[in-house]
Amino acid sequence: MTITDPTTTTTEGDSAAALAAARADLRGRLLADGVLIDLGSPGLYGRTGVFERVYAAVDAAAVRSQADLDAEVLRFPPVEPLAAFERTDYIASFPDLAASISGFTGDDRTHRALLAARERGERWETFLQPADLMLTPAVCHPVYGLVGDTVPEGGRTFDIVGDSFRREPSLDPMRLQAFHMHEFVHIGTPASAKTHRDGRIPGMRALLESFGLAIEVVPANDPFFGRVGQMLARNQVEQALKFEFVTPVYGPDHDATAISSANLHEDHFGTSFGLRTADGAVAHSACIAFGLERITIALFAAHGTDPDRWTSDVRAALAL
Ligand code: ATP
Ligand code: ZN
Ligand code: MG
Question: Where are the transmembrane segments (predicted)?
Fold first, then answer.
């Protein structure tokens, strides 16, 4: 398999090589020190006790930091119905990251053909049929179909954590195919959505800094697919729709990595899901997302793989 990594396509070959080496070094350390377990597919890892200990502490600290939102807790499975996925329009923006579930629906004969192909060492998944299920790429997706047509005065705010799958195999331990984000999602008026996005940024930054991480908040430039995607990306930057909390995991010479984000969707989901506010206008939405594995791995990269040796400040911030 060819592994493409959009962030390494740079004209400075030396810099790209140095970045690849830095990524391989961190990945090697996490595996050698027993933090992650290589599952044999890029961006897919098993996790050990030390990883889980830090990961759970990160998630708990994120939740504590947003307690004042009094958000409604919702949890979803790692797959979503195709119909719900459709309405998010994700396939228009990120077809290269999307992934669907397939199942076997054939008869005995087809099963024999499958087994024969398998016997010959050929790919047998082509015998499976697409099911009407997609792997969830962003954990807030299922909520928009659940809130009903009208959002009450003051809007609604949700606490959602779950699995995300994105088909972006990489040897960068910060870029996984299967990961988790903890999102705090608000659906309300244009003003309340913007207040949610903007109002949470300083606290998120302070929280991540309290973990001993160097943080910059920068406008995001998502890799929307294709030529139309370039327009969407320009629009995202020009309208300052999304901000990322980035930290220089691989040192000052390389682009910093996003470990969290704060995203204003404007009327995107309100329009697709037919959501309105009490005054009859299309609802707006915004979400803030903590990338739980990325924060955890950034901590191991910055402070070493033994949390018992982290400074007391960092351990206190994480209640470790
Ligand atoms: P990137 O620009 O690095 O691809 P993103 O803009 O696609 O990140 P979001 O869609 O904003 O990320 O997702 C919210 C958070 O989820 C990110 O800030 C990041 O911490 C985390 N995240 C995104 N993609 C991955 C991934 N492939 N592996 C691990 N964590 C991820
Ligand atoms: Zn979201
Ligand atoms: Mg991405």
Answer: none
| Ligand having the closest approach to the CA of 139 | 2
ipTM for the predicted complex: 0.97
Q: Is 96 exposed, middle or buried (0-12, 13-18, 19+ CB in 10 A)?
A: middle
DSSP letter assigned to residue 168: -
Stated as kind and residue range, the H or E segment containing 36 is strand 36-41
Of the CA atoms within 13 Å of residue 27, those in its CB half-sphere come to 19
What's the predicted TM-score (pTM) here? 0.94
Q: Is 176 in the pocket of ligand 1 (CB under 6 A)?
A: yes
Segment 256-307, tens digit of pLDDT: 999 999 999 999 999 999 999 999 999 999 999 999 999 999 999 999 999 9
- Ligand 3 center to 216 CA (angstroms): 18
On the 0-12 / 13-18 / 19+ scale of CB atoms within 10 A, 136 is buried
What distance in Å separates the CA atoms of residue 140 and residue 134, rounded to the nearest whole number?
A: 14
Ligand nearest to the CA of 159: 2
What is the enclosing helix (H) or strand (E) of 301? helix 292-303
String of DSSP letters for 64-129 = HHTGGG-PEEE---SEEEHHHHHHHTHHHH-TTT--EEEE----HHHHHHHHHHHHTT---GGGSE
